[in-house]
Amino acid sequence: MFRYFNDIFSGLWSLFIGLGITFQEFFKPKITIHYPHQSIKMTARYRGHIELIPGEEGQPLCVVCGMCEKACPSNCISIGGEKPEGSKKKVLTSYRLDFTTCSLCGSCVDSCNFGAIRFSKEYNLASTRKEDFHFDLLKRLEESKQ
Ligand code: SF4
Ligand code: SF4
Predict the structure, then answer these.
(1) pTM of the model
(2) Ligand 1 within 6 A of 100 CB?
C-alpha cells in the first residue's frame, strides 16, 4: 500500500518539476529562428567568404596590387586589371574567388594594405554543384549596389 502511494506521489512530483521547467522556459526570450524564412545577424568575428569593400561611390577600393593573390596559400584568388588610357592607376576588371579550396585563413585580408577586402557575413551557402562556389566578387559588388 505504501509503495502504491509512493509511486503516485513521485510520479506527480516529477510531473510538477517538468511543468515548472516548461513554464520557466516559456517566458525566456526565444533563441531559435524560423530558418530559412528568417536569418540572423552574424557576429563581428564570423568569417564568410571574402568580399570586396566598396568605396564611397560603391566602386571597389582595390588597386590591383596583387598582394592578396600572392598571399593566398591555396591559390583561390585570381584578379585582373587594366590601365585606362591616360590614367596612371590600374582599374580592377575581375576578382575571382575559388571558395572550394579556401580555408578562410585570412592571409589575403591581412595582406591588403588598402582595406579593400574583408570577410563577408554570408553563411547561407548550399549547393551540390562545385561551380556555385566559384565567385566573381566584382560582379557581386556591382549587384549589391542595386
Ligand atoms: S582566406 Fe586564405 S585561403 Fe581563403 S582566399 Fe584568403 S588567403 Fe586564400
Ligand atoms: S591586396 Fe587589396 S588592393 Fe591589392 S589586389 Fe588584393 S584586394 Fe586589391
Answers:
(1) 0.79
(2) no
Distance CA 80, CA 63 (A): 10
Question: Phi and psi dihedrals of 105, rounded to 5?
Answer: -70, -30
pLDDT in tens, 44-103: 999 999 999 999 999 999 999 999 999 999 999 999 999 999 888 999 999 999 999 999
Residues in the chain: 146
Is the backbone peptide bond immediately before 60 cis, with ω within 30 degrees of 0?
Answer: no
- Distance from Cα 89 to the centre of ligand 2, integer Å: 13
Q: Could you tell me which of 70, 81, 141 has the C-alpha nearest to residue 107?
A: 70
Tell me if the domain spanning 50-145 has CATH number 3.90.700.10: no
SS3 43: coil
**Residue 146, pLDDT score:** 72
Atom of ligand 1 nearest to the CA of 119: 1
111: left (phi over 0), alpha (psi -120 to 50) or beta: alpha
Which of the pair, 1 or 104, is modelled with greater confidence? 104
566578387: which residue's cell? Answer: 137
| φ and ψ of 56, to 5 deg | -60, -35
